[in-house]
Fold this sequence. Notes:
This protein is an all-alpha fold. α6 (132-146) crosses α8 and α8 packs antiparallel against α11. The chain is 77% helix and 0% strand. The protein is built from 13 helices and no strands.
Amino acid sequence: MLRYTIKRLLQLIPTLLAVSMIIFFSIRLIPGDPISLMYGLSEAGGVDPAFIEQMREQYGLNDPLITQYFRYMGNIIFHGDLGTSIVTKKPIMDELMNRYQYTIVLALGGTLFGSIIGIAVGIISAVFHNKAADNFLMAFSMIAVSMPSFFLGMILMLVFSLNLGLLPSVGMKGVKYAILPVATLGLYAVGLIARTTRSSMLDVVNQDYIRTARSRGVSKTKIYLSHAFRNALIPILTAIGLRFGILLVGSSIVETVFTIPGLGRFMIDGISHRDYPVIQSTMLVFATTFVLVNTLVDLLYGFVDPRVKYD
């Protein structure tokens, strides 16, 4: 297990390097550049093109892309420096440290909320397979998957903030402020986790050892919760890990709806201004978090299922 853990951690290095290259070069395909957007082009009353070129030279935007990439990665690896925002002139690391806490709370909270509800819904659907409860819960799951986050967030805001006055609708100043955005992300995750749980449970309950347990008079509750659920966990953990990544990046929409100063809003502002250092650094943090969480999920396989052999 230790050898496998070390191997998986070492595999993160080439993975993250490849991701950093894809991010760095792909965002250069976006039309426009930050200098042109900030100062405008040379037209009647516009900025002198010589000044535009001077600013591009100052920020190193005229250098070959491969030179810019190695300079950027060298600063990260050797100095821990993610650069400075071209628009705000503030260190990106400080911005990310202040904003990351809000995004990770939303992603983890939404994943936890969606996992608890989704697993419960999936188990109940498997127990009452092809019955009214199963059909109703699967319809609920389909609606949860299909409903856009921004629309669901506005509905929850309208009901619980505007009409009932129970919860705040904007900001993130405490636990009470996190309930609506976490519920918005969590309900979006319920559908996939519930359907995966149901499918995995139905595959397991048709195995021979489950029929043997039934013939020995083991209670239905113990069969589903003790035997079937444990052996159905690997696909469920995979679905939870993937859903976490989707919620992590998708939190930008929820952060905009609920006015939360997280990484998602920071990245969207960077995209609108073509602020290359902001975009690439934020996306790299997203990618690193997602890869680390999925590595943790891989390691959990050995703990939940002894049949998994890593050597």
